[in-house]
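Onboarding guide, step 5: your first structure request.
Type a short instruction followed by the sequence, for example:

Predict the 3D structure of this protein.
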Amino acid sequence: MTDKAPASQTPLRLSTVILPYRRWHEGAREAWVRAEELGFHTAYTYDHLSWRVPFRDGPWFGAVPTLTAAAGVTERLRLGTLVTSPNFRHPVTLAKELISLDDISGGRVTLGIGAGGTGFDASALARGDQEAWTPRERADRFAEFVPLLDRLLTEDTVSYDGTFYSAGGAQNIPGCVQRPRLPFAVAATGPRGLKLAARHGQAWVTTGDPKLYASGTPEESIQAIRGQVGKLAAACDAIGRDVAEIDKVLLTGFTPDRGRPLESVDAFVDFAGTHRELGFTEIVVHWPIADTDFAADQKIFETIATEALAQLG
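The system replies with structure tokens like these:
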């Protein structure tokens, strides 16, 4: 006998991503307030300096100030990043901001964190003759970034001298409201990232297999994600950790299904149920944005938020 629910009965949470492309008093504030009213578990935002087309040359606001403002107009909604990366962050300064945000929100912050990629974030702080980090260099930095950030959020004073980062008696008193620190949701699909998720993550995040986005099928995506879940389990086994301790988060919009799960309540229930069978505990959908890849009918979106989980049982 076991008291653990089978994958088909895994409790599922529904969260959203609100992109920081609108001025706070021109629609942004209302979205965060509405997300809480609709009962979303967490509302995340992207932690970029700028993002891809069509947002690349338009307004784009900082993640931490946005989440701080959101904390001031909500009471129950969890808040987080999907995802913060070493591309333009340093663990020492990031830890101070996160401790402050966790305090202001009353302990409602989750840090989504990943190795980062190419693009504007990777080059905004670079010198003109500096080449972008290779995937291996990003993985190297990430492997040092996460453990150091873990220490900074759990120890009063930290000194560290690493290959990429250092901390000279960095003080972070009084620490997080959440103990021993705010949760990490580690985005990873490669072996080194999955090891970090297994050791430091309270949650693991995937967007599926990016190679399947353009020409793959939903069935192929399911198989690929099943493989990722298996690799996470193996990484946990290697350090003696039960993979069931780690929440599994699917950020939607980047699989071959694209926006189809938001076309109707039935479509979402089918999509979410299929992924719950794989062991996912949280599905994240993008707040609708007209004339983008995240376009969706706002009324259907809100009906999904308020009714879909009850249909999953």
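Each response can be followed by summary notes, for example: Confidence is low (pLDDT under 50) at residues 1-8.
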